Amino acid sequence: MDFKSVQRLFPSEDGNKPQQAAFLNYIGNLIENIDSLKDPEKSTLGNIQDKNNDFYKELIENTYTPQSGIGMDQVVQELVNLSKGSPYQTRNYVTNSIPVASMAGIIGQLTTALLNSNSLWDVYGPAATEAEVRVISMMSKIVGYDYTTSWGYTTWGGQGAVFNGLRLAIVKQFPNSNEEGIPNNLYCFASENAHYSLLKSVEATGIGSKHLITVKAGADHSMDLDDLKCKLEGVIQKGGIPVYIVATTGVTDSFGIDDVKAVKEITAELEKKYQLKPIHIHADSAMGGFYSFFREYDFANNPLQFEENVLVSLEKINERMQHIHLADSCCFDFHKLGQNPYNASLYLVKNGQDFGLLDLEEFDTPYVGNRGYGSYHTGYTLECSRMGSAVSIYASLLAFGVEGYQQLLANYVRVNLAFREKLVNKIPRISITNNETIGPITNFRLYENKANWDFEISGRATSEEIDKINVLNNQLFEILGKNREGVFFGDTKKQCLVDVSNSRNRQPIYAAKFFSISPYTTIEHLDHIVEAVDSAIKELEEIKNEVLI
């Protein structure tokens, strides 16, 4: 390969038509070939490939870097081959929160790639930094922060927001901790249903997992406020210092919504009683926070004419979501309900001046920022190189607007309400295990003879009885997973924890999961999806009968 051939692997520097046409042709071929794999009756691009350990072993042994390159047409074909069997968010894709990315989001990410913007400094990434400032302002206003004092940045997912919230929580109470290290008596709190991001964060910051206090959750899968208060006081009275509480506003598995307002009231009371510094509250709104788009919706007049049951459910969600602004920080994973490509997360802080506690000195960043040319320098972020994902977020916010997101989010509620009704009517042996919460998620649990969730959630079942039904549901998971090419369901081995009658230990609940994440999943498709559950149960019964024979 000569140097001229190498140059032709790049977009043009002058916008000449031949190179532009070649580039567009590669993109067009990629889209055309991936589109040819789509089937709205399936949840994958073509057939699923069996990728066991031997498959990856063979890849390792037989993959080499070509000596001279293989040509862009062949590269495109290799990318198409990689795409075969991948999940695709058709109407039958109802597993976890990996969305079909909108055209606006994809074009925004393409813009980021073409400009190759680094959000670290506006001299290097003016498009990325301008978009970041714009989306900080837009989402601060949506959530109810004072946009003149709030601040934020795009980061590596809800995990990044939880971790950076903890960094900020520590340094707010202990301004010298970055130089001197952290005290050994710091504690963090979160619901037992919270995402494991906080567990990883307390380990990474050196607080230690034994200093993460889990709070019981109630029947609605939100944090038990009495238990929170009790555990906070227990830590304080033993000399511990609460620094961080994660209130989950839209639990990943069940969409339980912690009461941020009540959490704030509890911390204010204990701060006054024990003369504590303010405890940082982070609203983990990575998924559920998008329902903040209804914060100013006129529920009385219902301008978008949502059906009564949908409207009631949206208003119930809004009762909790409208208080996110009371949290010291929050986040939005646009690669979830924002319908953006990965990775696009926005971390917001109520008091933007707090970032000054984390910022590096000018001397420590000698080659970026702090010049007379350029005024946006993000030395307070953990990352140095930051993908300009705000461009994609900005494109989506412009394209959807408030009403577009309201329509999309309302449809997820509409579909889940109808799915629950159809499922339990068709299969009485199934219970909805998150019936007190509504949103894009339905958890359902199969029983041997009749639905028995009320018995389990009340704490009257034994651990052995719970385990037996968990085994049954795990068997169902395997069949649903095997058949995912048709309808792709989710599942979880810890949807929640419940009390049992013969042990002090709370037991995990296994449940299958219907997660409406595609705009193409509408009510008319639900009969087919329910039938897929019914067929999987019949397949399970046939296997059990064969074993008995």
Entry summary:
With about 550 residues, the protein is of the alpha/beta class.
Task: Please explain how this structure is put together.
The protein is an alpha/beta fold. The protein has a domain at 125-405: Type I PLP-dependent aspartate aminotransferase-like (Major domain) (Aspartate Aminotransferase, domain 2, 3-Layer(aba) Sandwich). The protein is built from 16 helices and 14 strands. The chain has helices at residues 3-7, 17-35, 53-62, 72-83, 103-115, 126-143, 158-173, 177-180, 197-204, 225-237, 260-274, 308-321, 390-426, 453-457, 463-482, 526-548; strands at 93-94, 151-155, 186-191, 212-215, 241-248, 280-284, 329-333, 345-349, 430-432, 441-446, 488-492, 497-500, 503-508, 511-515. A seven-stranded mixed β-sheet has the order 2-8-7-6-5-3-4, with helices on both faces. The chain has a five-stranded mixed β-sheet with strand order 1-11-14-10-9. Strand 3 (186-191), helix 9 (197-204) and strand 4 form a beta-alpha-beta unit. Helix 12 (308-321) packs across helix 13 and helix 15 (463-482) crosses helix 16. The radius of gyration is 25 Å and the shape is globular. The termini are far apart. The model has no long low-confidence stretch (mean pLDDT 95).
